[in-house]
Design a protein that fits this description.
single chain, 126 residues, alpha+beta, 6 helices, 13% strand, binds zinc ion
């Protein structure tokens, strides 16, 4: 049975579970969100963003439709994070446990989701 819901709405709802976590990280970083390309962007190198990003050498984190960036994202970083948004929409609730499992197995550079986000591949393309 096919759903009559628009595919964009379904993908948005699937990824939505992580949005509150992203907003919490953004708020605890002392930033105010703004909307960019249908996502919420927090820019801050303070608070939780400092602990999660700056101190560990990362530039941004994506949680659902929320992107927290230690500095204003470059076009390349923004494309990378938007790819993570698409991954969240595709994988849904499995994203976070899958990300952590693959991080433990592959580390950051060889992480399949990071590789997919860095050089667009067909990992989740139909
Ligand atoms: Zn990434």
């Amino acid at each position: 049975m096919r759903s009559s819901w628009p595919p964009d709405l379904i993908r948005g709802l699937i990824a939505h579970h992580a949005d509150p976590i992203g907003h919490l990280v953004g708020i605890l970083s002392g930033a105010r969100p703004r909307v960019r390309d249908g996502c919420f962007l927090y820019v801050s190198g303070r608070g939780l963003a400092y602990l999660l990003l700056t101190r560990r050498g990362y530039s941004a984190i994506t949680l659902g439709h929320v992107i927290v960036s230690a500095r204003e994202p470059s076009d390349a970083i923004w494309r990378h994070e938007l790819r993570h948004v698409a991954q969240f929409e595709r994988i849904g609730c499995a994203f976070l446990p899958l990300y952590l499992l693959w991080y433990a197995r592959h580390g950051y550079r060889a992480h399949p989701l990071e590789r997919d986000a860095t050089t667009p591949t067909t990992l989740f393309d139909a």
